[in-house]
Write a structure and sequence with these properties.
The complex is a heterodimer of chains A (about 100) and B (about 160). Chain A has about 100 residues and is an all-alpha fold. Chain A has helices spanning about 15-35, 35-40, 45-60, 70-99. Chain B folds into 2 domains: about 1-100; about 120-160. Classes of the chains: A mainly alpha (about 100), B mainly alpha (about 160).
Chain lengths: ~100, ~160
C-alpha cells in the first residue's frame, strides 16, 4: 500500500496505551482534586474511558488469541457502566443535598 | 493502521485529553457537562479510528447521557470534608500514577497481531455479549437496574422532603 511506506503516519498499541494512561490519570486527578463530591464523580467516566481505550487498543493491535473482539466488548460494557455509576452517584448526592 | 486512521486517532486523542482536563479543572456544571460531551465525541472518534464502530456508537450515547446528567437541573453540590492537604496529596498521587503507567507502557513488550474484525462488528460483539460473556452482560444490566432504582428512590425522597 502506498501510505504504508517509511514516512507514513501510523499509530500502534503504545500510542493507544499512552492515551489510556492519560485518561485514567486525569480521572483520578478529577476524583482527588475537586472539592465538590458530585463534581468529583466526573472522574468515573474518565477512568472507565481510559480502561475502554486500552481494551479497544489491545483488541485492535495485539489480540492474538480468540475471540479478537473481546476488548471492544468490554469497552461497550465499561461505557454503559460509567453512565450507570454516574447516575447512581448523582442520585445519592442529590438525596444528601436535600437534607 | 493507514494514515487517515492515524490522523483521526491523534486528533481524537488530543481532543479527548483536553476534554478530560476540562472536566477536571473547569468551574460550573454546565461547562463541565460540555467538556464531558466533548470527551464522548472524541472517544467515539478514537474508537472509530481503532475499527470499533459499535463501541463508538455506544460510547457516544453513554457519554452524552453523562454530560446531560452533569449539566442537568437535578445536580446538587455536596462539599467534601477532606482538607486541602489530602486533596493535594491525591493530585500528586494521580501524577505519580500517570508516570508509573507511562513507564510500564514505554518499557512493555507487546505482541503484535493482525486484526481480522470489521469496522462496525455489531453482530460479532453481540454474540460475545449474549453468548460468550453473558455473565458480564448480566452484571452490567444489574448495575444499570440498581442505578435506575436508586436514582428514582432518591428523587422520590427529595420530592417528599420539599
Amino acid at each position: 500500500m502506498a501510505d504504508q511506506g517509511a514516512g507514513a503516519l501510523t499509530a500502534g498499541l503504545v500510542a493507544v496505551l499512552f492515551v489510556a494512561a492519560g485518561l485514567v490519570a486525569t480521572g483520578v486527578f478529577t476524583a482527588a482534586w475537586r472539592r465538590d463530591v458530585t463534581a468529583a464523580l466526573g472522574g468515573i467516566p474518565l477512568i472507565l474511558a481510559g480502561a475502554g481505550v486500552a481494551f479497544a487498543g489491545v483488541a485492535r493491535f495485539a489480540a492474538a488469541g480468540s475471540p479478537h473482539l473481546l476488548g471492544q466488548e468490554f469497552a461497550v460494557l465499561l461505557a454503559i457502566a460509567s453512565v450507570a455509576l454516574l447516575a447512581l452517584g448523582l442520585g445519592i448526592a442529590g438525596r444528601e443535598g436535600a437534607r | 493502521m493507514d494514515s487517515l486512521h492515524a490522523i483521526g486517532f491523534y486528533v481524537s486523542s488530543g481532543v479527548l485529553l483536553i476534554g478530560g482536563l476540562g472536566v477536571a479543572l473547569l468551574p460550573g456544571r454546565d461547562v463541565r457537562g460540555a467538556s464531558l460531551a466533548v470527551v464522548g465525541v472524541a472517544l467515539a472518534g478514537l474508537y472509530v479510528s481503532l475499527s470499533a464502530g459499535f463501541a463508538a456508537l455506544v460510547a457516544l450515547i453513554c457519554y452524552l447521557t453523562c454530560a446531560a446528567l452533569v449539566a442537568g437541573p437535578r445536580y446538587r453540590a455536596v462539599e467534601v470534608v477532606v482538607g486541602p492537604l489530602w486533596r493535594q496529596l491525591g493530585a500528586i498521587a494521580a501524577g505519580g500514577l500517570l508516570l508509573v503507567l507511562l513507564y510500564a507502557v514505554f518499557r512493555g513488550d507487546f505482541v503484535s497481531a493482525k486484526f481480522f474484525g470489521r469496522v462496525f462488528g455489531a453482530s460479532a460483539i453481540g454474540r460475545l455479549l449474549f453468548a460468550h460473556d453473558a455473565v458480564a452482560t448480566e452484571a452490567v444490566a444489574v448495575l444499570v437496574l440498581a442505578s435506575l432504582v436508586g436514582g428514582t428512590a432518591a428523587w422520590r425522597i427529595r420530592e417528599r422532603a420539599r
